[in-house]
Specification:
Blueprint: H1 12-23, H2 31-37, E1 40-42, E2 48-50, E3 56-59, H3 78-87, E4 91-96, E5 99-103, E6 110-114, E7 119-122, H4 128-142, E8 147-151, H5 163-166, H6 169-173, E9 178-182, H7 185-194, H8 197-208, E10 241-243, E11 249-252, E12 255-261, E13 271-275, E14 280-282, H9 305-319, E15 325-327, E16 334-335, H10 337-362, H11 368-374, H12 379-382, H13 394-406, H14 421-431, H15 435-447, H16 451-464, H17 469-484, H18 489-504, H19 517-522, H20 525-535, H21 538-541, E17 546-552, E18 557-564, E19 567-572, E20 581-585, H22 587-594, H23 600-606, E21 609-613, H24 615-623
Length: 637
């Protein structure tokens, strides 16, 4: 690695800032270290999990360097170093009698509940490869028990992607196992990965930092776990049993489960699970060892802090007195009824404080940025490790609450119609007296350790002169120091990814598969037509018009498609008078054509898509759909 692109050491300003941060931390509290190791049985003998073709998916020992010393290096915030140490416990753990977790083999945990004859699997990780390794580890120590149920606690990809390592579609179709999920799971799981999936996945690379090499000057943690899986096989099996109301019960293989609905908390479709026979509570992702995201940096719908605190309050009332162990699908469990209630109360109070305090200040006229800058948790909350900024942060969650109620506009008309970044940057450079003058000011701010101001100035310079290598390298140095000072690992990853791309450019690592065959198979035709509308180039389509009758053979549903005014309108069960084309296809053939896995002209020629009337109308419509570039620039124009 050349000196130009290699990470730099901590500056004296960063070293002092991290040393000062250490002084205020209760580092003598070692309870989490003990809890994270409690019940340990074994871990993988070979730490690298690979695809069938040998490509590594994850190295669970890749972050073992955090265990070398309790003293955080100058390049890592001491609180983050401690969190990474606790998170580095990986392997098979006994949670309580009959309940096991495999942790540290992926971003999420897989939970296994033993029944009379078989097992119930909760959340099968991100990829088939990691889920298979987890099950193999469990079975090596507990026996080869058949899977009686697969449960998805919520609709995020790290909680369903390994489904086909747990069950086959044939087993489910034959009724040998059930797949249980909250109402709305399938549509939410598919929509999140498709509608804005290209932008969200690109941004997730900044948030999680999978391209940042692990090390004291690189990747430390992703908040929910240390090591990250990548390039595995994502799968999905559709639910066969949906839970719709709090209090619903299911008994599978002798295991009774009571469900608490939690939509609109950490995910749009989510539930918690109480296991009364084991006095155990699966908190899904609603109570973990971190302040969670109300807004996630990869981009997603803002979550509702009010719904979140009320859900946890209900959890305490429903299950608090009848629970001896609480475990989540990230991090490690806690034991003891009184301690569990105190933990849930603390997390509940955390989200209510953020919600109420932001709105209190907003109603006094404070803006989103002003509120985020001044907001701090009270000592009773901030003193708890599980409330700290390891995934969400007080700063960006405060902005999320403001955004949910008041939106992006702060009512200052000067902010209503700002110039786009390049135009504004060019004028800022001119205002500063030219490129050399502004570069000198950025350098002076950097030398003074005024990194936030330096980053703001430097971004204008980079956007005004994207070919200016000196400006890009200086901006990389600035972002790197900001990353080194972050307690929040996702913030650190954002800064270090920005520095990496400023130094080495955007690396095109090939196509990222956003919609796997399983996801496509789960999509109703309406969602496929929605995505057609998103892919449509409205400017090129503005002068075009067509009317198409499209029938999906495997559902028997017909759709009236109308291209007009640069949009694609579809109407279910409407029959057009004299359409220019009448089309018949399966849902799968439509999906393959829309997602670009097969060309529409070839599909028409092969008969996968049959057309009565003008097939050219179909070809011309699909020619107006754009394939989105994945590796678009972020820190440069």
């Amino acid at each position: 690695m050349s000196d130009a692109v290699a990470p730099k050491p901590a500056s004296s300003h960063t070293a002092r800032a991290n040393a000062a941060a250490r002084e205020g931390l209760p580092l003598a509290d070692r309870r989490d270290y003990d809890d994270a190791r409690r019940g340990f049985i074994a871990t993988l003998s070979e730490p690298v999990i690979r695809r069938g073709d040998g490509v590594p998916v994850i190295d669970v020992a890749g972050h073992d360097f955090v265990l070398d010393t309790d003293d955080a290096p100058d390049t890592v915030h001491p609180s983050l170093w401690r969190h990474a140490q606790v998170n580095q416990s990986h392997g098979l753990f006994e949670v309580t009698s009959g309940i096991y977790q495999v942790r540290g083999l992926d971003l999420s945990n897989i939970t296994i509940v033993e029944g009379d004859e078989g097992i119930i699997v909760i959340d099968p990780l991100v990829y088939k490869e990691t889920a298979q390794a987890a099950l193999d580890l469990y079975r090596a120590h507990r026996g080869d028990r058949p899977v009686k149920a697969l449960i998805y606690t919520h609709s995020h990809g790290d909680h369903y992607g390994g489904a086909k390592a747990v069950l086959s579609q044939e087993e489910v179709d034959a009724g040998r196992a059930v797949v249980i999920a909250p109402e709305g799971f399938l549509s939410e799981a598919v929509a999140e990965n498709v509608y804005a999936g290209n932008a969200m996945t690109r941004r997730a690379i900044y948030m999680y930092g999978p391209l940042i090499p692990p090390g004291p000057q690189g990747h430390i943690n992703a908040g929910l776990a240390n090591a990250l899986s990548n390039m595995g096989s994502s799968t999905l099996i559709a639910p066969t049993d949906l839970i719709r109301e709090t209090g619903e019960k299911r008994t599978v293989d002798g295991v009774e489960m009571v469900f608490q609905m939690a939509p609109g908390t950490e995910a749009p479709a989510e539930f918690l699970i109480h296991l009364p026979q084991r006095r155990a509570l699966c908190a899904a992702e609603d109570a973990t060892h971190t302040l969670h995201n109300l807004y996630t940096l990869r981009g997603a719908q803002v979550r509702d802090a009010a719904t979140w605190w009320k859900t946890l309050n209900e959890t305490i009332e429903l299950f608090g007195a009848d629970t001896d162990v609480i475990f989540a699908q990230h991090h490690w469990p806690r034991w003891g009824s009184a301690d569990i209630v105190a933990f849930l109360e603390s997390q509940r109070d955390l989200y209510k404080f953020l919600h109420d305090r932001v709105l209190h200040l907003a109603n006094k006229g404070e803006t989103m940025v002003e509120i985020a800058e001044q907001l701090a948790l009270p000592p009773g909350l901030s003193a708890q490790w599980h409330n700290r900024d390891y995934y969400g942060s007080v700063n960006h969650n405060a902005k999320a609450v403001y955004q949910r109620y008041l939106g992006w506009y702060d009512s200052n008309p000067a902010h209503l119609h700002p110039l786009p970044p390049v135009d504004a940057a060019t004028r800022y450079v001119e205002l500063a007296g030219g490129v050399d003058a502004l570069l000198a000011r950025v350098q002076a701010a950097f030398d003074a350790g005024d990194y936030r101001w330096a980053a703001e100035l430097g971004s204008h310079l980079v956007f005004a002169q994207p070919g200016n290598r000196d400006a890009a390298l200086l901006q990389a140095d600035i972002l790197e120091q900001l990353g080194y000072q972050c307690e929040n690992p996702t913030w650190r990853n954002e800064y270090l990814m920005g520095a990496q791309e400023l130094r080495g450019g955007v690396r095109d690592l090939g196509k990222i598969e956003l919609a796997t065959l399983d996801v496509l198979g789960a999509m109703p035709p309406e969602m496929i037509f929605d995505y057609m509308g998103i892919k449509l180039d409205g400017s090129r389509a503005a002068g075009a018009s067509s009317r198409i009758q499209w029938t999906i053979g495997d559902t028997g549903t017909t759709y009236a498609l109308e291209l007009r005014n640069g949009v694609l309108i579809y109407t279910v069960d409407k029959t057009l008078d004299a359409p220019e084309a009448t089309v018949h296809s399966t849902k799968a053939a439509l999906a393959r054509a829309v997602f670009g896995t097969s060309g529409v002209a070839e599909a028409v020629a092969s008969g996968d898509i049959s057309v009565d009337g003008s097939s050219q109308v179909i070809v011309e419509l699909f020619a107006l759909l754009e394939n989105f570039p994945f590796w678009f620039p972020i820190v440069q124009p």
